């Protein structure tokens, strides 16, 4: 019988711990749960672009709250990935204005080019396709969000091809919140 070793419990890096401490310090001690959203962003950036149950448990432990309180939030918001993802997560808006401007065709084109269906990662591991609701850039529909970057007016195959080609040229590693310029509002204000 093969000896079994328990997988190592995830741990935040020292830089992440310092950032977490800074964020938590903004709230009264009894309200540390208010830091949950930014901590999940940090966890997602630290642990490969998704938050496994073990990572969610780590967030709960860090905030001294029950794991279920983290699961409820992580499963509610589409910006948290609950399974492993590719190097680039393409969030395709499918709400009315984007749909009227061709998001169905855009999605079909992306599926053909990447070999991944919505909800899947491409065989080369480069792209994960997700459908999301309004990205608040309706005037530039159809829109795809990749991390903090918006790709707009993707209503021609050429525009989609250019986006993929740009992304393929980027060497991606998770960008940690404290390294990023142009942080999401949730991280700037919390
Ligand atoms: S409907 Fe797509 S950005 Fe608003």
Can you walk through the features of this model?
This protein is an alpha+beta fold and 190 residues long. It has two domains: 14-82, Arc Repressor Mutant, subunit A, CATH 1.10.10.1590; 88-168, Glutaredoxin. Helices cover 40% and strands 9% of the residues. It contains eight helices and four strands. A four-stranded mixed β-sheet has the order 2-1-3-4, covered by helices on one side. Strand 3 and strand 4 form a beta hairpin. Helix 2 crosses helix 3 (53-63). The longest helix is centred in the middle third of the chain and has 12 residues, at 103-114. It is elongated and about 50 Å long. Bound molecules: FE2/S2 (inorganic) cluster.
- Assembly type: single chain
Q: Please, how many domains?
A: 2
CATH class of the largest domain: Alpha Beta
Number of DSSP helical runs: 8
Range of strand content:
5-15%
What's the helix-strand series? HHHHEHHEEEHH
Radius of gyration (Å):
18 Å
Instruction: Characterize the biggest β-sheet.
Output: 4 strands, mixed
Keywords: 2Fe-2S, Iron, Iron-sulfur, Metal-binding
Protein name: NADH-quinone oxidoreductase subunit E
Cofactor: [2Fe-2S] cluster
Organism: Hymenobacter caeli
Short description:
This protein is α+β, with helices and mostly antiparallel strands and 190 residues long. It has eight helices and four strands; from the N terminus they run H-H-H-H-E-H-H-E-E-E-H-H. Strand 3 (144-146) and strand 4 form a beta hairpin.
């Amino acid at each position: 019988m093969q000896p079994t070793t328990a997988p190592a419990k995830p741990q935040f890096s020292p830089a992440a711990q310092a950032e977490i401490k800074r964020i938590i310090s903004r709230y009264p001690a009894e309200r540390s749960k208010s830091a949950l959203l930014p901590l999940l962003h940090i966890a997602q950036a630290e642990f490969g672009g998704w938050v496994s149950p073990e990572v969610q448990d780590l967030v709960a432990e860090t905030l001294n709250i029950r794991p279920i309180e983290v699961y409820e939030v992580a499963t509610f918001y589409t910006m948290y990935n609950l399974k492993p993802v590719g190097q680039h997560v393409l969030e395709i808006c499918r709400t009315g204005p984007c749909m009227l401007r061709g998001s169905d065709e855009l999605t079909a084109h992306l599926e053909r080019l990447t070999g991944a269906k919505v909800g899947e990662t491409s065989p080369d591991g480069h792209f994960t396709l997700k459908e999301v609701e309004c990205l608040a850039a309706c005037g530039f529909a159809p829109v795809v969000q990749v991390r903090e970057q918006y790709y707009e007016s993707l209503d021609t195959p050429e525009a989609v091809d250019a986006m993929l080609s740009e992304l393929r040229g980027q060497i991606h590693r998770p960008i940690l919140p404290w390294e990023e310029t142009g942080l999401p509002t949730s991280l700037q204000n919390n």
